[in-house]
Design brief:
The protein is an alpha/beta fold. The chain has 2 domains: 38-141, no CATH class; 158-347, 3-Layer(aba) Sandwich (Rossmann fold). It is built from 13 helices and 7 strands. It has helices spanning 2-10, 18-37, 42-72, 82-89, 94-109, 117-137, 144-153, 158-174, 178-188, 216-219, 268-277, 285-304, 328-347, and strands spanning 202-207, 223-228, 232-236, 239-244, 247-252, 258-265, 313-318. The strands form 2 sheets. Strands 2-5-6-1-7 form a 5-stranded mixed β-sheet. A two-stranded antiparallel ribbon has the order 3-4. Helix 11 runs antiparallel to helix 12. The longest helix is centred in the N-terminal third of the chain and has 31 residues, at 42-72. The model is unreliable at 345-383 and 403-409 (pLDDT under 50).
């Protein structure tokens, strides 16, 4: 499990709710301290602060609304309704308006007036206007963490689009046919090496530096191109018989033993690498590395929930810190192949090793062949046993209600 632990140490996890919890704790402590000092004016102070925090964004939204209505109402919104699209886009959301309305109502219903009430209203107006100014100038703009959280939460990163495009436009089309292609390949290539269960999956290489070589043998001389799998022709986007092809490589270990497998790089990484080389894209090396990790995490999540691709792929994240090893690529491929075969061997033991404990009391010898058909009648009441199936995964079916009782009349 070492390679999986190394990958987990590199992949960023989704951001959680810890900032919200910390903010709630700070607010509770502050409100509690004010309540101890002057409980009679607590509701008035809270209402005034909420008004300051909500009227500022609303004034800034008015500034944004002026720009959108004068120059972008037709091009960006296609003449859509003001209330349904333009106002929410400018920050006039229901939550902000509701908070401002409730704060105004709470301030109106407060029994005890605020001290220096005239100065408080001046402070409210001045703070709201200055907030709109600083927000427009970018002084109060969102931090990089907030922007990253918004983009990840709303799936707005470049990596999210590339991962979905790679899945919908390629993997979902070719992976269901991979097993048949490998079977046909082995039938025509008698000299082909051992194909374990791990080798019958598509190995997708994802290097962190996004620097992809078009020939694997150029990266590692222990990897040799063997042949191509049979072509898959699919009608796609007006192209009749578009060809999808996989390549078979022979990977040598340190003892000279070869293993055949279907391996290729994730082609969308070429786009990320090319974007980082273009100054107009505004996409540097740190952003590229972050997007590669998000691409891996997004693609892994998509494939785990895909019935068409399940158990037909293996994502291999390559750390670029080991570039000094000339055989790092072949070692990484072999390590993943061996790990998959060990895990699957432990989870799915051979059928001949299964022993039924309820037949040990039979008078017949254990070496005698069964004299009854394969469908033996066993006692209706016995302890449950754990069974494993080697069949291909199938789609789930909806449960069928069969507990109705029919009475014959």
């Amino acid at each position: 499990m070492q390679c999986l632990q190394d990958q987990d140490a590199l992949i960023p996890r989704p951001r959680g709710n810890l900032p919200k919890v910390c903010a709630a704790v700070l607010a509770a402590i502050t409100i509690g301290a004010i309540m101890l000092q002057s409980p009679e004016r607590l509701f008035g102070w809270v209402a005034m602060v909420i008004l300051i925090l909500t009227l500022g964004p609303l004034l800034h939204g008015l500034c944004l609304l002026a720009e959108e209505m004068l120059y972008h109402s037709n091009t960006r919104y296609r003449g859509q309704g003001l209330l349904g699209h333009v106002l929410p886009a400018c920050g006039f959301g229901g939550q902000t308006l509701l908070a401002a309305g409730l704060a105004g109502l709470l301030l109106y219903l407060a029994e005890q007036p605020l001290p220096h009430e005239g100065q408080c209203w001046k402070l409210l107006v001045l703070a709201s206007v200055l907030y709109a100014l600083f927000k427009s100038l970018g002084v109060l703009g969102p931090s990089e963490v907030e922007v990253s959280d918004i983009c990840e939460g709303r799936k707005m990163n470049v990596a999210h689009g590339l991962a979905w495009s790679f899945y919908l436009g390629y993997l979902r089309l070719v992976l269901p046919h991979l097993e048949n292609s490998i079977t046909a390949f082995c039938a025509t290539h008698r000299a082909s090496g051992h194909w374990g269960r791990g080798s019958r999956k598509l190995l997708i290489l994802i290097p962190l530096n996004a620097n992809i070589s078009h020939k694997l043998e150029d990266e590692d001389d222990n990897i040799k191109f063997y042949d191509n799998l049979p072509n898959n022709e699919i009608d796609r986007a007006g192209v009749r018989g578009r060809v999808y092809r996989h390549s078979v490589y022979r990977v040598l270990d340190e003892h000279g033993k070869d293993r055949d497998c279907v391996v290729e790089y994730a082609t969308p990484l070429l786009t990320l690498y090319s974007m980082s080389q273009e100054s107009s894209a505004g996409f540097g090396e740190p952003e590229r590395r972050q997007q590669v990790l998000l691409f891996y995490r997004t693609l892994q999540d998509i494939l785990e929930h895909s019935l068409e691709c399940r158990n037909r792929y293996k994502l291999i994240l390559l750390n670029d810190e080991h570039e000094d090893d000339p055989h790092f690529l072949s070692k990484a491929i072999l390590r993943h192949l061996q790990q998959q075969e060990k895990e699957e061997f432990c989870l799915t033991p051979p059928p001949q090793q299964e022993v039924n404990p309820f037949r040990t009391t039979s008078s017949a010898p254990t070496t005698a062949p069964p004299s009854t058909p394969p469908f033996n009648h066993e006692p209706m009441s016995r302890e449950p046993t754990l069974m494993f199936s080697l069949d291909k995964p199938k789609s789930l079916k909806a449960p069928v209600e069969n507990t109705d009782v029919y009475v014959n009349t």
